[in-house]
Amino acid sequence: MNLENLLRETLSDMADEERPPTPGRFLVAHDRSRPRRRGVALVAASAVAALAVGSVVVVQGMSSRAPGEAVAGPLNAASEAPRAVTVTVVEGVRVARLFEMLSSRTGRPVAEFEKAAKDGSALGLPSYARGRLEGFAFPGRYAFAPTASAGEILGAMVAGFGVAADGAGLVEGARRAGRTPLEIVTIASIVQAEAGRDEDMPKIARVIHNRLNRKMFLQMDSTVLYGLGKYGARAGREDLRSRSPYNTYRRAGLPPGPIGNPGEKAIRAALKPASGPWLYYVTTDPKNGITKFASSEAEYAELVEELRRKKH
Description:
It contains 13 helices and 5 strands. It has helices at residues 3-15, 24-27, 40-52, 95-106, 110-117, 120-123, 150-168, 170-177, 181-194, 201-213, 221-228, 264-271, 297-311; strands at 70-71, 85-89, 140-144, 280-285, 290-294. The longest helix has 19 residues, at 150-168.
């Protein structure tokens, strides 16, 4: 079932109870004289309906940008709602930076977004998110009315995640993989942070699954840096001594939850990793994002030496 049909069915199911609002209710300034009949979840759903039919909200792949960046730009002038605020959420961005970007674009304090993020039920977070927004603010390009609340804005991104998760068959796919949906989203977030190129995502996902299956420490710098609130490609020696639950050099298994907000390609890679015996990988050409994979310590040592030679 494609995205548009899925949303039509969802809104159709609501029709017996009450006619759903048009996307304009969310994307154009509210008439404050009218009482709001539904909560954030339905408002967000209507925004995603607009996304599906190519109206005011447009979602694009953001793989060309570095994880953690976020930018904003105008939508097509012919379809843009009057005075709409547009934001682009880049794949891999953490909620901390997302809130800063949204605050800058909307003029609302970061504290408003932090407060809204604590009400998982109002945002429509799935139960397996455990009330935590990280990992579930779906990347893409959005447009909002200037009057949209912090909860409505974040709710639309959560609704976007729901559509992507349904399309990827996340819950059933996680069951087949012997993982929980939260574990799959966590794996996807690590894949998103670690991958230099989209084509490497399925292989990186395979390395993570293989190491978990063998009860090996993941040893991912991205998780260490997340736990320390730092950014960068590599964790330092002192970082690796951290007692954070996200330090996968010292703690076995996956970290407690996602370390960023993955896109659809990373989610699909986590669900359907490439087939292979790999246990290691090294970005041997950081400038061009070239990553090579190894299935033994000897092969891994060779890749590390290759990287050393290129640095010198």
